[in-house]
Amino acid sequence: MRTRAAVLRTAPSEWEITELDLDEPKEGEVLVRMMASGLCHSDDHVSKGDAPIRLPLVGGHEGAGIVERVGPGVTRLAPGDHVVTIYVPVCGRCRWCATGRQGLCVEVVRCSVGCLKDETFRFHDGDADLGGMCVLGTFSQYAVIDQDSCLKIDPDIPFEVASLVGCGVVTGWSSSVHLAGVRPGDTVVVFGVGGVGSAAVQGARYAGARNVVAVDPVPFKREMAKVFGATHTSAPGEDAQSLVTSLTGGDLADHAILTVGVLDAEVTGQAVAIVGKAGQVSVTAVGRMGDLTLRGVSAGMLVGPGKRIEGAVMGRANPLHDIPRLFDLYRAGDLKLDELITRRYRLDEINDGYRDLLDGKNIRGVLVHEH
Fold this sequence. Notes:
Layout: E1 2-8, E2 16-22, E3 29-38, H1 41-47, E4 57-58, E5 62-70, E6 82-85, H2 95-98, E7 123-125, E8 128-132, E9 142-146, E10 150-153, H3 159-180, E11 187-191, H4 195-206, E12 211-215, H5 219-227, E13 232-234, H6 238-247, E14 253-258, H7 265-274, E15 275-283, H8 299-303, E16 308-311, H9 319-332, E17 341-345, H10 350-358, E18 364-368
Parallel strand pairs: 4-8, 11-12, 11-14, 12-13, 14-15, 15-16, 17-18
Antiparallel strand pairs: 1-2, 1-4, 2-7, 3-5, 3-9, 3-18, 5-6, 6-10, 7-8
Helix pairs in contact: 3-4, 3-9
């Protein structure tokens, strides 16, 4: 069949809208009619050449849609099911999945290539094989993906909302709840409050943090952070350090959570300085390929006060368990998801969407597919 998609042939470059051939689903695979896709900063990293990944590829990894057809051996899904995509495949059987660390599933090795389990591709442009971002490709109207890369959801969850939970929301929320392990009464500083950071703010508040400080250079994002539960906001730098010092009587923060769009050594240094004794810096953000994001931090800054720096994929979430829980919280009014969507875009407007992201105009833009 044919499908329209946003593809990247070289990097750095913008997204190109084109028609591709799409194979039928094979063993363990499903054909999904994509309805919505979040415009995540990770795809922009790829388009800028910041991340090592096989090109050409179909972009997009935050998606939601409807299963159209299933291949042989599919047990998790059936035609007509509504699904959310998961940007790290979850086999449920490997050592990491079996010990509750699904974000480290062995199938993650295919994410930088975009091929399916048989090491072949489903998207084609003439003689060229195209991978899918994170083995997905949600910037396409249709995609063939492995059943391990998506999760059935209830039909009452809007596709646009569902798409965000498969990456940004589960990562941000889990960065506070699982990776940082925020506890009641803690002081938490979230650096960068776009889509991921706004979810981290909500996770910290839900976990019982007394102070949640949202740090971002963009005034619009700082104002929106209050909607998501931030108790205080600040621009980066000395203002943030002074605010946290005042709030805690000099004890400083228990946690700093890094969810900025592009991580660099300056932000990491600010985070290490803003946590106090036994404080933790939780790293979810990524930097540009080859950049050192930890410079100027001496061992004494960590050993004496017992500070920790720790990173994790997906905020240490277990998506098969955590994503359904997040939808339950959304239904109950305890998790704001509709408010994350600043603007909706058509496929042909995808480059406009990423310009808006980089200009600080969006918390999250969502691509709505036309069929």
